[in-house]
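Key idea: predict the complex, not the pieces.
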Amino acid sequence: MSERVIGIDLGTTNSCVATVEGGVPKVIANKGGYKTTPSMVAISEAGRRLVGHIAKRQAITNANNTVYAAKRLIGRKWTHPAVQRARQVLPYKLVEGETGDVRIELHDKTYSIPELSAIVLSEMKKVAEDYFGGPVEKAVVTIPAYFNDGQRQATKDAGRIAGLDVIRIINEPTAAALAYGFKKNIRKRVAVFDLGGGTFDISVLDIQDGVFEVLATAGDTYLGGEDFDQRIVEWLVFGFAKEHKLDLRTDVMALQRLRDAAEQAKVQLSSTTTTDINLPFIMSASGKQDALHLQRTLTREKLEELTADLVERSVEICDRMLKEARLDKADIEEVVLVGGQTRMPRVQQMVKAFFGLDPAKSVHPDEVVALGAAVQAAALVNAQQSGSQPDLLLLDVTPLNLGIMIAGGYFNTLIPANTTVPTSKSHTFTTVRDNQTAVKIVVLQGESDVSKQNEMLGEFILTDLPAMPRGTMEIEVTFDISPEGIVSVFAKDKATGREQSIQVTATSRMSEDELQHVLEANEEFAVAEKNTEVFQTLRNDVERHLREVDSLVPKVREFLSASDFGEDALKKVETQKERARRAIQMQDIPALKEVREKLERANTMLKGVAERVAGT
Amino acid sequence: MSAVGDHLSRRVSRYQITSVTDTPTADPIFEAVAGIDITSLPLTPEEGFVVSRLLGRPMSIADVARETGMPAASAKIHVNSLVHKGAARPSGSGQAHSAGQETSSGRTKRPRDPYAGLIFSPADLADGRDLSEEQKKRILFMELHIDDWNHYQLLEIKRSASGADIKSGYFKASKEFHPDAYFRKDLGKFADRIDRVFRAMKAAYDVLSRPISRAAYDDTLVGDLTEDEIEELSNIADLKRRDQEHAARLKRNEATRKAGRLKWNPLAQRLNKARELFRLAEDARRAGKVEEAATHARLACTFDEALTVRAEPILTEADAHKVTVTLRRLNSAMQYGDASMEADIKKAAEAAAVLVEQTRRPELLVEVATVLLKIGLPQRAFRLANLACEVNDKHIAGWRVMGQAAAAEGKWALAGRAAERWLLLEPSSTEARALAKSIKDARSA
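Result:
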């Protein structure tokens, strides 16, 4: 008998567990007969842990101690703007953890997010164990494709805490594609549009001969059904405030009731065009006022108006992804809709309009991700147990750029997004100063050109370098991503052959202060892009501009000094000149690029003025 | 790319396969190649017929001729063509094989032992408990060739593979070598080997899956090819060359047709010719060759009448030029000539009169009229002078000649009016007064 393995879709609002039995993937229902379980955890007055439907049922009366949408916080730093925004809308209390992570305080006890996610995971494990009548250990857990390394690691931690052997973490849209294409013997290019409770993902895959090749993926970890609910809640709150001059958000219980009503209204508007929201006694009588009731009618049209920008954003992300991956929309042969929010007619219309295709009907948007996870779990275990080739293979990609910080605080990508894993890439860097004996390699992940705006994965210092003039030292940095998605970084000084490496496995346990310190105060350890050719051309350009500026300035000085504005402009030109000289000295390529542009503009300005001076 | 093609064709010629018919064997036996999908080969109907006879029944060319009812010569051609296209081969039985045939049959897709000549270290084969021996051999074999095989060989695809073929090859390779295919198996040192092989395959796929990088890579490959690849590439080059030739032929035909259409359209041709001549005329005029310009212009007008209006100024100018020249000659003839030349002078003067009438230039008209008067043709002289005065009624000399001519003819009324005009324009002229007086006298007489 083959080993029991499960796939778990750990969703923002709902979770789902599935397995493969007799070659057929199927969802396992919980004891209540529900195929999905709310991803909610609560601590009751008596201190008992409540999960799933029970937690959801008591959420209104115990809002302060009921955690929902924890997935939106997993692996996030306390200072992340999304966390700060969440603090204002969530009824439960967020506190900063010792290592700069996010914790949740319930009944005076703080819980880390992986701990809370683990409670949901163990509930799903229990659902499966009840079904099998025996223990289950191995599981594939899904995450949004756009999760960064920290979020992935935190999800893995959650699995470990729940007593699961998480054999693989896979992306939700990929899982959906696996379930869609499993045993179908199809040869197709498929787009998976996954608008779930909390996150949005879009992936494009080629499916052929049982191989699933992810071509591109993109997304937004802060766009999902929760945001749609929030829009309705705000609409209700403002309407109520207008009428009664009372802010319902001050009342935690009222807010929880609003949230429930909003979700229900949204779900109903997927099948009807209008719905009533009735919340009697929303505010209990206090002092001079009688009890207040909330009663409003929401039309589908109004809902679409309230959420138009959210839907728009998802389509924009699709467009951007196709452009960046240089894929042609016309080559996509099938669109699979995943996630409860894709039931909204407006979303379906937009997707249809964008891809020019009717979405696949065979897929259940709530269950398909768990089914795909189960399919992958079964495939891996089969590969382990049989001697033949697997009948299903997944070729996945990295969702984000991976690279290191270089001089000036810039981000240098080594492995770009949408590269198939496993992969490795090397690049040679150099020192910034004469006789520099140490360099710091700061490993980052993200989309920005500026290091600070990206997620830091780790850092290390390569020391005892031989003293050499700047720009001559050669330091080879190699990035490697294993099939498991584990990132390793090696740095090698080519002169001595000395090598250093880190494996980015654990959640980066670095506090924000430390991070700032690393990103800002490391001038003496900075590395630079080793590219003398680029530097030479830049240097020539900049020096030419400098000469031009120098020749122009005396001609226009008198004219410009006459006005405050002119005086200011002259000063600015002087600053740019100074900056250019420093950049040349530092061999700082990004700074040179910037200063070249500025000087060019200054030159055009000065030329214009000089012409006018000559004309008068 | 063409450099590559040249290079290939040169390389290929060295590996040219000796044709089966060159072998000195008396009666070679042929058979259909087993396991080949004949429908996928580019066979002619005759070849298809022949190969259908050969299926499962090796036979000689004479047998083929008998079976198909073809002449032996054409049967031979078809069989050779089939051998060339890979559908048939000389039968393996019998000792009638020369070296040439060996090469030929070696070239057909008979499965070869891929590991021939390789000795696997027992230490290596003892490692990795969860792998079969065949798997281990395959992994070791592939790892051995990571560096010396090109991307196509690594993915086990043809040089001519399409984008879809490359993807299929990579997917097939992935299923065999992706680390997930050996999930949590006890692989020992083979784990690293599999990883290395898969990464090499992925790198190969990354290059070949993008047309630009593939083309750049192909350019680096020519120096290092296997025999199979050379043959395949030469096939590709052949196909490409044929395509190019076809395209060139089409283009040429189109050009010829177009030229032909123009050639056989007389109207278009005339117009072309007229335009060409007129261009020449204008060029000549600009160069100061008035007469040449007139000739061309006149010719042009015969081809296209619409050009007449534009040609007129050129022709007039030429006429005026001619008159001037003739006058110069006449003047000198009259000055130095004798009576014997009188007839010639008259003739020339008349010709000049005709020409000058066309130009309608007063100065020239008057000049010719003067000459005509001098040589005793007052009637013609009067006409020209009259014309000159019509064009320009203030032309003194015109009226003068007109008066003199009329007087010479005895048309006193006309002569008197002309003399009057002359006097009006030139009151101080004694000559005019004398003329007027003589006319008056004559009339009164």
